[in-house]
């Protein structure tokens, strides 16, 4: 088989996927040093859509989906197809037929830096899809690409086996080797934010960090206040 197709790679474990799926993409991006969030152009077709799983990467040429069909044949249940469609919106790379097949195969969802179509039918299927919008044009099936190789998707390097978590805010991708160390940080951040929100609701609305930050930025002089 061509070296452009990588079949075997280590996936983030199912247990880590399960644990990570409990957190918002925003929480995971924050504890990952504000890294790993794909460009906001890649968004859920419907806000309620969520997914979590290991990435199976696909690189295609704009408007051509040949390699996506091949990747679907190689995917394992629980995988997330992460597709570098070159941010092209001139033609949809996937629609109802392919999404139905993905769901039947047990694929956890699709993240695509490109367009899709049949969005109402995909919504009715309740299959999670994150894309760069929609377009009614169909794709070609003529051009070679790559599967399983590192790609750039939405400005982030994605390797097959990395963790993908996506929700209404967008898509987070974390390096497989780092996920176990991020989870305790995510848990603490959720606890801290929950406590802060509770304090705000009791009237403690002032941000403790604001005045020092304004002074450090030169907006306020030492000793000045708002």
TrEMBL record:
Listed Gene3D superfamilies: Ribonuclease E inhibitor RraA/RraA-like
Cofactor(s), names only, from the UniProt record: a divalent metal cation; Mg(2+)
Pfam families named in the record: RraA-like (PF03737)
Binding positions (substrate): 95-98, 117
InterPro entries linked to this entry: RraA/RraA-like, RraA/RraA-like_sf
Cleaved signal peptide residues: none
Source organism superkingdom: Bacteria
Keywords, in A-Z order: Magnesium, Metal-binding
One Gene Ontology MF term: metal ion binding
Annotated Mg(2+) binding sites: 118
Protein name: Putative 4-hydroxy-4-methyl-2-oxoglutarate aldolase
């Amino acid at each position: 088989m061509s070296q452009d197709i990588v079949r075997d790679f280590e996936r983030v474990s199912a247990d880590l996927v399960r644990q990570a799926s409990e957190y918002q993409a925003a929480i995971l991006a924050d504890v990952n040093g504000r890294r790993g969030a794909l460009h906001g152009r890649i968004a859920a077709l419907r806000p309620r859509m969520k997914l979590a799983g290991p990435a199976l990467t696909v690189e295609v040429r704009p408007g051509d989906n040949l390699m996506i069909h091949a990747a679907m044949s190689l995917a394992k249940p629980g995988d997330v197809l992460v597709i570098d469609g070159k941010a092209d919106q001139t033609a949809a790379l996937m629609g109802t037929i392919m999404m139905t097949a993905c769901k039947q195969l047990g694929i956890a969802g699709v993240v695509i830096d490109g367009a899709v179509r049949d969005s109402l039918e995909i919504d009715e299927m309740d299959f999670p899809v994150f894309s760069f919008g929609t377009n009614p044009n169909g794709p070609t099936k003529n051009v070679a690409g790559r599967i399983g190789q590192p790609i750039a998707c939405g400005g982030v390097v994605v390797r097959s086996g990395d963790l993908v978590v996506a929700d209404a805010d967008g898509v987070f991708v974390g390096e497989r080797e780092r996920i176990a160390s991020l989870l305790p940080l995510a848990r603490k951040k959720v606890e801290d934010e929950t406590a802060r929100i509770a304090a705000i609701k009791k009237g403690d609305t002032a941000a403790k960090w604001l005045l020092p930050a304004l002074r450090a930025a030169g907006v306020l002089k030492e000793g000045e206040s708002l």
